[in-house]
Amino acid sequence: MISRDEILKPIWYAFTALDVDRNGKVSKSQLKVLSYNLCTILRIPHNTSALEEHFKDDDEGPVSTQGYMPYLNMCILNKIQANFDFNELNKMCWTLSAPKHISGKHLLISGAEAFKVWCIFNYLSEDKYPLQIVIEELEYFLRKLLAAMGCSWNEDRFEDYKMQLSAKKKHLNAWELIELIGMGHFTKGINPQTLSMGINEVYQELVMDVIKQGYMMKKGHKRKNWTERWFELHLNYMSYYVSEDLLEQKGCISLDRNCCVESLPDKDGKKNLFIIKCVEKSFEISASDKKTKQEWIQAIQDCIVRIRQGLSSPHRESRQKRRELRNRLKAEKEAMENRMRQLQLANESKQAQLEAMTKKLQEASVRGDLVEQRRLQTQIELLDQYRRDLEQEKMARMQMEEQVVEKANEVEQYWQRMQELEEMYRQLKKALDDERQAKEDEEALSKLQARLLQEEASKRLELEQIHLQQQEILTQSQKEKQELERERAEKERALQAAQEQLEILRRQREGAQEEYKVVTKKLERATNKTKTWNVNFLKYHLSETCPTRMTNWGPAAFTETELDEMERIWQENKNRSHDGQ
Fold it and tell me: How does it associate, per the subunit comment (predicted)?
């Protein structure tokens, strides 16, 4: 059963959309239309005079939300039955409110996907108006959306966005959330089809209460045939359709505390079987694999357990736990703030006491300062007397220092003269040592020059011998070069003679070819003459020996065709014998 708070959220959007002037009031005619549509969708008998009866004492103009709420609670919400379509209510309120907020924006998602995000926002938002979503629920939705698309969670990007919201000190409303998703702030670079599938999966789970969905095979009750169906598991029922577009529902399995689900062995060529046993009938279903079978059995069993324990669906229970946790943390935060305020008040009290003590200390300090000033004045007078005595003593000491300085200058001059004489003695000694060292170096240099001259003479003799050897080698090389040149000239002459002889042979071959052509032509003429003579001889011989056979009459006569054939055979035999020769 949908709670009243969840039903009020889309109605609030519809009321706000009708508030054209944005002053919190709507005309009665518009409220009549809205009330009629609500009664139609919620399947409540509509009383046309109830609205006028309710507002008969208020004829001052438009009605505010505070004035419409008692009528809404008493005449509509108190009469709601469990068989209405909550999705239709959402669509009606979305149709009224969406055009004013998203019609001019270029979003990456379609209107149907924006509607699903709006429904998800209403589900996750707090039950306070104007509706807003807290940052924890926003993070929960974004994590589920990215997980449904198979994408990883970017903690840094969300923390940056969280800091921006904290700086603005605000929470998101539904239209800002649609813009956040539609502009791709957290889904940049993702295929729009993937984003659409992710939004739809989160919408099915949170808004439509779909715990699990997928294709499976179901056994019929009458014809006992197996047909593939699209199953959707909710807390209290399990519906199945022809396909996942949900256009044609084929049936519904009601779940209650008396139902159970069990695994079945393979049979009739079907594997991964399980059965849902209800009070009236049982349903045999075949999953695609063992893992899927076990997941469906576990999900259905969890729903039955929750029905027996009177619990809501898992994600609704999770939402309630998150809200309770936030309320508990908020209460703890408020208690902490109250404690901090108490501590601050106590601190202010202590601060006031400290300031009073500080004031007393300052007064005592002032009295102490007066005593200190008198003591300092006495010390100053004593210091002045002591300073005068020190100055007199300093004058006497300065006179004595001047005399000492004069004596010290005389001693210094005497000491400088002694140092100059010692320096001159050291320089003279050094000059003598340098002169002696120079003589020794000159002798060593003369010996080195003599040895170098001797070595140069020996090197010169060796170079002359090497030069003579090189001259001999060059002479030998020239002789060998001349011999090679002579051999090369002889080979070139022999090659030229061979080329001339080859040219003569080529001309002789060409002449022989010409003679062969002449002889061939003579032979052909002789062959043609011989052929003509043989034909004439054959005709003459036949006319002499068999005159009756040459006629074209009688059984022994030759036709023209037979004569031509005989002539062809004779010519082929002659050519064959000529080719053999």
Answer: The SWAP complex consists of NPM1, NCL, PARP1 and SWAP70.
Q: Residue 9 to residues 208, 419, 453: CA-CA distances in angstroms? A: 16, 112, 122
Please give the pLDDT value at position 558.
60
- 229: β partners: 216
> For the segment 275-301, what is each residue's pLDDT rounded down to a tens digit?
999 988 899 999 999 999 999 999 999
Alpha-carbon gap, residue 135 to 133, rounded angstroms: 7
Half-sphere exposure of 515 (CA within 13 A, CB side): 6
**How does residue 580 score in pLDDT terms, banded at 50, 70 and 90?**
low
Residue type, 163: M
Which range has the worst mean pLDDT, 118-127, 482-491, 571-580?
Answer: 571-580
Distance CA 494, CA 500 (A): 10
Q: Report the b/e string of 443-463 with b at 16+ CB within 10 A.
A: eeeeeeeeeeeeeeeeeeeee
d(CA 142, CA 159): 13
φ, ψ (nearest 5 deg) of residue 557 = -75, 145
pTM of the model: 0.56
